[in-house]
Amino acid sequence: MATSVLLADFQYLTRQGIASLIKAMPGFDLIKSIDSPHSLVDFVTTINPDLVVIDISDKDKELVPQLKFLKETTSCNFLVISNSQTRNSIQELLTMGIKGVLTKNCSEEEIINALRAVSLGNRFFCNNILDLVVDNPKEVDDCEPTSLTPREFEVLDLITKGLTTAQIANQLNLSVHTINSHRKNILKKLKLNSPTELVVYALETGLVKRSQ
Predict the structure, then answer these.
(1) Which residues does residue 8 pair with via DSSP β-bridges, in sequence order?
(2) Which of 2, 148, 153, 169 is the most exposed place for a label (fewest CB within 10 A)?
(3) What top-level class would CATH report for the domain 150-205?
């Protein structure tokens, strides 16, 4: 079954561009495209799509409480495209449980990867977003995504829960060698140097949830 998508973008050109991209993706069905923030809640609650793609700019502050309400009352996944460059605004999105955040600088490939990841319930943040929410953000010119695979997210989650490589291999029915390869790839993609940095980074940025 195709992933149903509602697109909420209030600028004509970007809305048309993202709509064309979604329509061209196999397995995705753009069932509604809206151009007014005032109709967001009504359409999302009525249609209840699998995925909501929403463009939020700094001037659209009224959308944040609407998004929070929808996150709490629907089963939709949300991918936010934001022009905000402030740590507080991005952290607010992460705190409410938004699993995907991109910036306007992201490429077509990055947007496609984000759509696929978030539609599956995985997290996807470009590095510009991640840099805003770590303790010592740095300036970067690119918007390379943290394109972890679903399996890498699984491994990352188990690492943050304190499991050893052997325990992770046993739980996922994989070899220790395969788990070590996943660990190396995750560190490389997130540009980190040690498992300790990985755990702290993953928890602080919301890549995985803290154990209750």
Answers:
(1) 34, 54
(2) 2
(3) mainly alpha
**Superfamily grouping for domain 3-133:** Response regulator (3.40.50.2300)
Domain residue spans of the chain: 3-133, 150-205
**pTM of the entire structure?**
0.67
Sign, Cα dihedral of 117, 119, 122, 128: positive
Helix (H, G, I), strand (E, B) or coil at 7: strand
Could you tell me which of 41, 15, 100, 25 has the C-alpha nearest to residue 4? 25
Q: 195-201, long-range: CB within 8 Å, 24+ apart, which pairs?
A: 195/159, 198/156, 198/159, 198/160, 199/159, 199/160, 201/134
CA 196 to chain centre: 23
Q: What is the DSSP letter of 145?
A: B
- The 10s digit of each residue's pLDDT in 142-155 is 455 556 788 888 89
Tell me the C-alpha distance between 177 and 40, whole Å. 47
109-159, pLDDT tens digit by residue?
888 888 988 998 887 877 667 666 554 444 444 455 556 788 888 898 888
Question: With the C-alpha atoms ordered 89, 92, 98, 100, is the resulting torsion angle positive or negative?
Answer: positive
